[in-house]
Structure to design on (235 residues):
């Protein structure tokens, strides 16, 4: 197998990993929680990751518990595989510059857990919530833009994977494969526009929050914040 084939296979694998880590999944209750609350939760997760090995251990424990409570263990697995890539990179590239291997391990673990937190944040992003909020504040152009964009991105990723596969099998250049993807994207974008044109004037996005899921997410946010404050006070 040539180096080019290996590179193409790696790109296809990475695209599939991102696709499964972020876009695959049902409309779970976790997607019906305030995204702003999720942002606050991630801020405390990042702060907790900066508190040494104790903070990293606490963050790992709470992330695992959070995945089990919300039933998103599969998402956590794909998030871990995706997060391992930048974590390994930072671990290897910092080895020559750190005092000890322990410091590089800590940096790698920090990148690993923060990457998982950010990926899980993307998993909780619900374009319908953004569309609903934009319509409430009078930004009419955003009513359909957000859900449409979120729907098109997975198509683009799949087309990109198919283009890489065709390029590998036929031995064509990279740019020709990408050109095929752009043509396909342009084609179904036009189809979306034609199909939704009559709905633009009267489209009213609907969205509801899950009180149970929001309450649990708020509890986890408090746990992350309490853990961070406790570790800071121990210094």
């Amino acid at each position: 197998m040539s180096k080019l084939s290996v590179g193409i296979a790696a790109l296809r694998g990475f695209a599939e990993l991102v696709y499964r880590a972020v876009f695959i999944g049902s409309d779970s209750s976790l997607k019906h929680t305030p995204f702003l609350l999720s942002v606050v939760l991630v801020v405390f997760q990042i702060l907790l990751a900066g508190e040494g090995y104790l903070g990293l251990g606490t963050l790992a424990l709470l992330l695992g518990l959070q995945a089990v409570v919300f039933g998103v263990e599969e998402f956590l697995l794909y998030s871990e595989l995706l997060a391992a890539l930048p974590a390994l990179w930072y671990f290897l590239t910092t080895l020559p510059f750190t005092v000890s291997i322990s410091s590089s391990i800590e940096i790698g673990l920090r990148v690993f857990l923060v990457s998982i937190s950010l990926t899980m944040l993307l998993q909780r992003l619900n374009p319908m919530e953004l569309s609903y909020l934009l319509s409430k504040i009078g930004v009419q152009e955003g009513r359909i833009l957000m859900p449409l964009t979120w729907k098109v991105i997975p198509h683009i990723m799949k087309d990109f994977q198919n283009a890489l596969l065709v390029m590998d099998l036929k031995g064509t250049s990279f740019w020709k494969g990408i050109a095929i993807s752009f043509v396909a994207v342009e084609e179904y974008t036009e189809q979306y526009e034609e199909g939704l044109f009559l709905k633009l004037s009267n489209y009213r996005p609907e969205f509801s929050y899950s009180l149970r899921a929001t309450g649990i997410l708020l509890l986890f946010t408090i746990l992350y914040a309490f853990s961070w404050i406790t570790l800071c006070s121990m210094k």
About this structure: The two ends are 54 Å apart (CA to CA). The mean pLDDT is 82. The longest helix spans residues 142-170. The CA atoms of residues 46 and 114 lie 6 Å apart.
